[in-house]
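Run log, item B.
One chain of 197 residues. Sequence copied directly from the ordering sheet:
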Amino acid sequence: MKMNSIEEIKKYLKENLSSERYLHTLGVMEEAIELAKRYGADIKKAEIAGLLHDNAKCMAKDDLRKFIKENLPDVDENELKNYKTLHAPVGAYFAKEKFGVVDDDVISAIRWHTLGRVNMTILEKIVFLADKIEKNTRDIEYRNQIIKILDENEGELGLNKALFRCFTETVKSLAQRKLYICSATIDVYNWLLEITE
């Protein structure tokens, strides 16, 4: 199966995502490209992963759960407790099966763009961060705070510190709203705390 072109993917996403989600998607793609240039990652991989990261986002949560149960037995039960992250494993599956992506780095970046994981690759970090700070739909003040962290720290340390800030905010927000915190999120938080001290 040949991978769809960028234009074909954009056409599909425009037709299958809400207009705001599509705008966000384009923002993530653009931000991922910029971060890839900054941190020496593969720009084409960043572009494709950024563009496809939310390809399953507009599926109903019950459909996502059903799809995961039927097709993705490796997804941890804990992950199923927060419907906001269910689109990531499904999106990774679709990237391969629907859009013809064969690159494991790209598929992995899509898979882990919501929860993250311990020992994330540069590309996974880039797509995760791009999702949080793209300028089309995300909070500009928050974006500026993250960019400042990147600017004040050299190389991958800046990326790690920016990610740590994101995970700190996520844990805080979930706790305040009395929402389930996946154990993977805690693991990543602890890992980032260790490597940024």
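Observations after the first pass:
- The CA atoms of residues 117 and 184 lie 7 Å apart.
- The longest helix spans residues 155-176.
Flagged for discussion on Thursday.
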